[in-house]
């Protein structure tokens, strides 16, 4: 199994790296997955069999309380 983990440099990815150290980890600094060319490039380069995307919006407790649907989306 070749696992590609995208969109993470935070808490979840750091924990996952301890459990899956052999996975390939890329962040938005490496690729902008909102751009089709870069999206295709990442999959052509790594040819992963499994992909996990961890990107999330980060905010304060007040932001999470006032805008819950934005954080879920």
List the helices and strands and how they pair.
Blueprint: E1 3-6, H1 11-19, E2 24-26, H2 36-46, E3 50-53, H3 61-66, H4 68-72
Parallel strand pairs: 1-2, 1-3
Word description of this protein:
- The relative contact order is 0.25.
- Helix 1 (11-19) links the parallel strand 1 and strand 2 (24-26).
- The protein has a 3-stranded parallel β-sheet with strand order 2-1-3, with no helix packed on it.
- The model has no long low-confidence stretch (mean pLDDT 86).
- The protein contains 4 helices and 3 strands.
- The chain has 73 residues and is α/β, with parallel strands linked by helices.
- The chain has one domain.
In percent terms, what proportion of residues is strand? Answer: 15-25%
Number of helices: 4
Total domain modules: 1
Q: Enumerate the spans where pLDDT stays under 50 for 5 or more consecutive residues.
A: none
Q: Main sheet, how many strands, which sense, barrel? A: 3 strands, parallel
Keywords:
73 residues; alpha/beta; three-stranded parallel β-sheet; 4 helices; 3 strands; 42% helix; 15% strand; globular
Quick overview of this protein structure:
The chain has 4 helices and 3 strands, in the order E-H-E-H-E-H-H. It is α/β, with parallel strands linked by helices.
